[in-house]
Amino acid sequence: MMAAPLYPGGLVEIQRSNLRALLRHLFREKGTWIAVVHKLGFRRSVVLAFLDGTNPGNMALARSIARAVGLSLDDALSGKAPPRKAPALVLVSSPRRKGGAS
Fold it and tell me: HEC states along the chain?
């Protein structure tokens, strides 16, 4: 049984932990916190305060994180992994022949 949040619309600790893991995933994917916060639409200070635990977060932030990683809100809160992206298509050129006319 999950503990009830401290206030209506709040997040319980396991949900916050799952969302923080998704934020770290976004950071690895995007490379900078600036890119992450642009994707989320929240201020950098809010996102980093949630990440380090000084901000308890809210459902709006949770929805934004879920959307950014391609999950439903329920899946993000329950700790599902984000969907894997298809590998980038790499065009391979034909090998060059050495010497002589082709």
Answer: CCCCCCCCCCCCHHHHHHHHHHHHHHHHHHCCHHHHHHHHCCCHHHHHHHHHCCCCCCHHHHHHHHHHHCCCHHHHHHCCCCCCCCCCCCCCCCCCCCCCCC
User: pTM, whole model, 2 decimals?
Assistant: 0.76
Environment class of 49 (CB within 10 Å of its CB; exposed 0-12, middle 13-18, buried 19+): middle
| C-beta separation of 44 from 33 below 8 A | yes
- Domains of the chain in start order, with CATH, are 13-77 (1.10.260)
Closest CA to 10 of 60, 78, 47: 60
Distance CA 62, CA 17 (A): 11
Nearest to 21 by CA among 79, 85, 72, 86: 79
What's the pLDDT tens digit per position in 52-63?
999 999 999 999
